[in-house]
Structures are given as C-alpha cells and as structure tokens.
Amino acid sequence: MLDQSALSFELPLPVSDPTLLLVDDDKPFLCRMSRALDQRGFLVRTADSIAQGLSALEDSAPAHAVVDMRLGDGNGLEVVAALQRKRPDARAIILTGYGNIATAVTAVKLGAIDYLAKPADADDVTAALLRSAGFTVEVPENPMSADRVRWEHIQRVYELCDRNVSETARRLSMHRRTLQRILAKRAPR
C-alpha cells in the first residue's frame, strides 16, 4: 500500500497570494480538485458555471484560476478573459476533455498560462500554476496511445449524454451499432 504522505505536493512558499478560483460543472471533480488544492495551500473558491465564475470575480479577483473549457452555460474562456481584465497578473489554467490546437492558442492569447487535458490531477495543476515563465514541459515517458485518447473521448461524451447510446452516437457522428461495439470492448492501452 502506498504512503499517502509521500504523494502529497507541498506548495512552495513564498506564494504571496494563494487565492484560487476553480470553475467546473462536473460536481464530483470540482469537490475532489477543490479539496486537493486546498490541501496544497491554496485558498479555493468554487463555481460550477460561467455565471457563478464571473460573479466570484466581481467579489474579488484571485491570483490563480483553474477553469474547465466547456461548461453548461458557455465557454470557460469567458472567465479567463474577465480575470485577466480584473487582474492582469493572475495565472489561469484551462482544463478540457476536448483539446485541440485552436482552442489552446485562443486560451493562451486570452491569458491562460497552460492548457491541460482531463483527467488532470492536483499535482499537475499545482505544478502548472507555479511553473515559472519559459519553463518547458517534459514529454511524458508513457503517453496515452491515440486509441486510448479516442476511447477516453467516447467515454466522456457517453457519460455527458447520461449513458444514452443513441444520443452519444448522434453527437459523435457515428453509427449506433459501431458505438455499441466500442463500448463493449475494454479500454485500449
């Protein structure tokens, strides 16, 4: 069994302002990530929609933000842009399960310092938030295969469609029976 204390990531001090806004519409993920970032020394405020995120920014602009790209009521880039207007020195990260180059470029242009694919863990998020400018990311030793990335995307859309095969197939522009065969198989490595 692993020692949990060995897995914890200590927040390097001094961080002059540990305030953080976490915006995600996936409530279980929001709770887990909030708890994990709180344990790492951040003062976390959460929001589960664009409207709540913008409202939280009106109260006080945090020094850090972690924002999901696709939310039920819009695009998380709205929150990043609003944060940068209120506090230009804030460090924001975009999390997404739908990564592509165009949205990554847009996120960086709007002020995000990084763009992480879900599922990202708290250590990845903390490292990205505290990374100094000019730092280059190491290539993972064992990256996910293209088949695994495709499978993860299909699973996410399937869950977002409340496990409705017909709706998922329609949204993925895929034949329903093909999707059923994919869902019946084990996850690729």
Task: Write structural notes for this entry.
- The structure is a single chain.
- The chain is α/β, with parallel strands linked by helices.
- The chain folds into two domains: 17-130, 3-Layer(aba) Sandwich (Rossmann fold), CATH 3.40.50; 146-184, Arc Repressor Mutant, subunit A (Orthogonal Bundle), CATH 1.10.10.60.
- Helix content is 46%, strand content 16%.
- The protein has a five-stranded parallel β-sheet with strand order 2-1-3-6-7, sandwiched between helices. Strands 4-5 form a two-stranded antiparallel sheet.
- The radius of gyration is 18 Å and the shape is globular.
- This is ActR/PrrA/RegA family redox response regulator transcription factor.
- InterPro entries: ActR_PrrA_rreg, Bact_response_regulator, CheY-like_superfamily, Sig_transdc_resp-reg_receiver.
Shape: globular
Kindly name the structural category.
Answer: alpha/beta
CATH C-level class of the largest domain = Alpha Beta
Which strand order spans the largest sheet, edge to edge or round the barrel?
2-1-3-6-7
Q: Would you list the SSEs in sequence order as H and E?
A: HEHEHEEEHEHEHHHH
Q: Please outline the major beta sheet.
A: 5 strands, parallel
Unreliable parts:
1-14
CATH topology title of the largest domain: Rossmann fold
Helix content: 40-55%
Strand fraction equals: 15-25%
What is the element layout, followed by pairings?
Elements: H1 4-7, E1 19-23, H2 27-39, E2 43-47, H3 50-59, E3 64-68, E4 70-71, E5 74-75, H4 77-86, E6 91-96, H5 101-109, E7 112-117, H6 122-130, H7 146-160, H8 165-171, H9 176-184
Parallel strand pairs: 1-2, 1-3, 3-6, 6-7
Antiparallel strand pairs: 4-5
Helix pairs in contact: 3-4, 7-8, 8-9
